[in-house]
Amino acid sequence: MPKMIVLDLDGTLMDDNKNISSYSISILEKCKENGIKITLATARSENAAKRIINMVNPDFLILNDGALILNKSYEILHRKLLSIKTTDGILTECKNKLNINDINVETEIDFYSSFKGFYHSDWDYGIYYDFTKPLSQKSYKISVEIFDEETALDISKKFNECKLIYSFGENWYRIIHKEASKMAAIKIISNLQKIQISEIVSFGDDFNDIEMIKECGIGVAMENGIKEVKNIAKYICKSNNEDGVGKWIEENIL
After folding, report:
1. What is residue 122's DSSP assignment?
2. Does 109 share its domain with 73?
3. Same domain, 90 and 172
4. Which of 81, 37, 82, 83 is nearest to 61 (CA)?
5. Residue 118 pLDDT > 90, yes or no?
6. pLDDT of residue 135
7. Do the beta carbons of residue 2 and residue 203 sit within 8 Å?
């Protein structure tokens, strides 16, 4: 039996309506009853994941694509932020580009967004900011709506501290610290918990999940996942709209 299960959220544990079924919640509860640690690993921030956190009550949280690690008491175990210089430099580059639309920045203090509309209730805590002036804050993550990859790469390559992450099927690119990743965060938690990487099962569907799907003891790709994830996964489970995570765990672990 594995000692820890690591779960991506969007496209994995959550269905396309951004919900988790009572069935999947019950399966994760059974895992915890059997001594299996549950870790959520997401590109979302703590606030954006709060609704799901309250439903799952995980043992650990890997947030902002690995830039922040929290335990169940919300104590910070590890974090990797972009410096003020890098953050403001990236934002200046973004404002000078023509084919960039909305900008979101997650800092230690707040979530700033140039978007005046409504994304989803999970992100309604944002503060409107047009980024015409520097934020002068360190950041966990800068998310930018960019309409061509060349522009995104051009921005990220100008700053040695960061790396670029792309989500399949979207025009959104995320910029985080180059040393942050879901897998790097998993290794930190495994060391703290004295759990071997071989004793960890991970579930994911997108580019930012590839490393953990490949390196954990068992990597499970979602049927709705991109081919790059499915090609390196040990198993493929049913889609996120079919309780794929819960069903795989029930059939193979419990």
Report:
1. G
2. no
3. yes
4. 37
5. no
6. 94
7. no
Q: Quick one: 100 and 165 in the same domain?
A: yes
Claim to verify: residue 147 and residue 67 sit in the same structural domain? no
Residues in the chain: 254
Domain count, the chain: 2
Is residue 123 over pLDDT 90?
no
* Four-CA torsion 92, 93, 94, 99, nearest 10 degrees: 140
| Cα–Cα dist 94/146, whole Å | 9
Residues of the domain holding 166: 84-177
Which of 114, 146, 177 is the last residue before a domain boundary? 177
Instruction: Tell me: do 163 and 213 sit in the same domain.
Output: no
- Model pTM? 0.95
Per residue in 143-181, pLDDT (tens digit) is 999 988 889 999 999 999 999 998 766 789 999 999 999
Residues 6+ apart with CB under 8 A from 54: none
Among residues 116, 151, 177, which one ends one of the domains? 177
Can you tell me the distance from the alpha carbon of 105 to that of 170, in angstroms, rounded to the nearest whole number? Answer: 18
* pLDDT above 90 for 34: yes
Average pLDDT of span 4-8: 98
The answer to whether residues 203 and 89 belong to one domain is no
Element (H, E) at 50: helix 46-56
3-state secondary structure of 41: strand
Q: Same domain, yes or no, for 144 and 184?
A: no
Cα atoms in the Cβ-side hemisphere of radius 13 Å centred on 97: 24
Cα of first residue to Cα of last residue in the chain, in angstroms, is 8
CA distances to 1, 40, 60, 224 from 198, in Å: 11, 18, 18, 25
Instruction: Give the pairing of strands 100-107 and 139-146.
Output: antiparallel
CATH number at residue 153: 3.30.1240.10
